[in-house]
């Protein structure tokens, strides 16, 4: 298939259905609604680092001072509540885009999210009992009664007291579901509440008050019927799960939907597909980062949250269930220095470019590239629809994704720690934040990989541009 024919086929057959999907109300609400969680993820990452400083002496001093618990509290109520931010933000954006008062919908989504889960936690004694139990520890962290001994002593008590001591603690919120483990449920609830709320408002299911009533009061009465219908339906759904399945909706979604999807996103195949598609869409002038970010964020952010929880507990390892592919794997490796990992082109322009066009665009791109922005290259060089640079543009992110997955899988570098460095954080600096000095060093290696892959192709394209410039200069001289 010739280049023009292939491009035409992609533009006519491949991109339209993809763009139609990406621009649906649900995907737009998901993409824009998740943005509201971003400040809490980043701020919470700071508290996560402070509560787990990767310097043993400093970490011990912080723990002894009591500040580790304070930082943990701040982390739990920011990063640890990402499912709440998602549930509220997605419903809010969905209804806002339908041009209705949006905050009541966001709050309704939050109420539904809480309603559909058991408001209880397992009794701490359950995890402490038995051979595999943690036992009882003192304030210094030393075990003062083993799990086996604890079980033996509790078994001596009357059955009524045993049941009381080991029964779930009710009337409390289980923070487990407010973080990464509740993310898919939060997304589904946010979308369904947004859709149902908008549909009822559109159908006129609202209480209309006289014009004399202040707008802020009237808006809340307008929200009462849609919110009431949604909450009543959610209550009946909760009752069905409780009485007939002996579980709640969030647990079921986590087991049958979120766990398999996270496993798929965390696979080598998933990483390679994501890496390829970002550049693939960009090559045809479509924002690959936004498309893949919208599609993958609902799965990769929970992966990040799971790793953050393991890191906070001091158990970050693949053996303990840590994920390789997280949102930071996407932001700080697949898109390092911009989509296509184009730092290799920047280095080429600094040391080897001969053409004026390459040198000029390289100077413009130098500073943005440090902050992972490469639109000057994408549209100015250009990389979009450029057959000279298509292969390295597609290949570099795939090679980096493959090699990064491998070095984590084989234990050469540790899993990403769940810290969310903003996507504009410069390379190597972001690596240190998201995985320590080993990850920073590996990011430096990925920059060298980009340079090695792009260099021969950039040299050929630069020679092509240089020849064109020389021919044009010679023609202008002869005409003069």
From TrEMBL:
UniProt GO cellular component terms: plasma membrane
Keywords, alphabetical: Cell membrane, Membrane, Sugar transport, Transmembrane, Transmembrane helix, Transport
Protein localization: Cell membrane
Claim: Transcription is one of the keywords in the record: no
PTS EIIC type-3 domain segment(s): 10-457
UniProt function note: The phosphoenolpyruvate-dependent sugar phosphotransferase system (PTS), a major carbohydrate active -transport system, catalyzes the phosphorylation of incoming sugar substrates concomitant with their translocation across the cell membrane.
Protein name: Permease IIC component
Species per Swiss-Prot/TrEMBL record: Loigolactobacillus rennini DSM 20253
